[in-house]
Amino acid sequence: MDLSEQDLHDLIELRHDLHSHPELGFEEERTSGIVARLLEEAGIEVHRGLGGTGVVGTLRVGNGPRAIGLRADMDALAMPERAERPYTSRIPGKMHACGHDGHTVLLLGAARELARTRNFSGTVHFIFQPAEEGRGGAKRMVDEGFFDLFPCDAVYGLHNMPGLATDEMAVVAGPQLASSDSWTVTFRGIGTHGAKPHLGKDPVTAAGHFLTALQTIVGRVVDPLQPAVVSACSVQAGNPDALNVIPDTVEIGGTARAYSALVRDQLEAEIGRLAQGVATMFGIAADYRFLRRIPPVINDPDTTRRALAAATAACGAKVRTDFPPSTAGDDFAFFSQTVPGAYVWLGNGPAVDGALHHNSGYDFNDAAIETGVRFWATLVQQELTP
Ligand SMILES: [Zn+2]
Ligand SMILES: [Zn+2]
User: Fold this and answer.
1) 346 Cα–ligand 2 center, Å
2) What is the pLDDT, as a whole number, of residue 1?
3) 19 Cα–ligand 1 center, Å
4) What is the pTM of this model?
5) Domain containing 273: what range?
6) Which residues are catalytic?
7) Residue 382 CA from chain centroid, whole number
8) Which bound ligand lies closest to the C-alpha atom of 73?
């Protein structure tokens, strides 16, 4: 598949238009409107409004029984764009700093190309997801019945990656992105005069023991060959203007990251066990909450093999299979924990002026459009062979 010069020109124009009109999660009215219109124009069946502003385009060709889902995210970030470019964000305080404008264009380009050539047999669902950046778009699409409406045998996701060349991809089996969960512990003691600790129950000393023991979960409980992170990121207690008062409570909160369901379960159980144990030791109480936000993205071996074949067809020998996983998260996991999935990286070229994802100078690289569209279109042709 080769994009015509006109097609490529149109996709670049569209990418710049989306870049200059960024929209935050669940507010992608303009973007999803453009997506739905361009899919419909190409003769693709369109379902709007799944997960608020989500759009799913379905293309059925021939009678192949297999169905696959390809996901692009559409949302921008609540941050100002500090770079000067002809298509700089026109919306103050919002910018496409993660390249989702590019993801949207790649999948649209492939959808339109496939609707024209129709050289496969089966069903492809083009998933345009809202609110990837921490607002729960994928979960909402799944909760609102995505897999009932659009049954899939496999799902695929793609993210741009600075540092890889624009004709380069990375496709790796196994863990790609970490789970991203939050937790809070509140130690409840009995407040008292700082000079008379024996008349109360001091939660501050208990909190100190908890914090020093916290890293023993990763060091002593989790398998040393399994990556895991537990961090306490917030500690609230007492008042610097009342240095003779032992407070009633100490509130601690943090994050937990893992690359497997087993380790994720362990972190949830162990942080709580440690909090309760320390509380018991000091004769106070502890309230524990673990908030499961995003599961890890783990690439299924067979699905990854299929993605690798398509990436190899799209970029030749420049496909990396040794790329390290990221400690960031992506809610694509809500799709790929339901059916087998693969998440791949597409090169975005060198980091210009050091700007990486979520930097106020970041930009998707138009030179990657051809590779990305070719990858998606080839994947469908290979996956759904007549
Ligand atoms: Zn991001
Ligand atoms: Zn992103």
Assistant:
1) 12
2) 66
3) 14
4) 0.90
5) 180-294
6) 75, 132
7) 26
8) 2
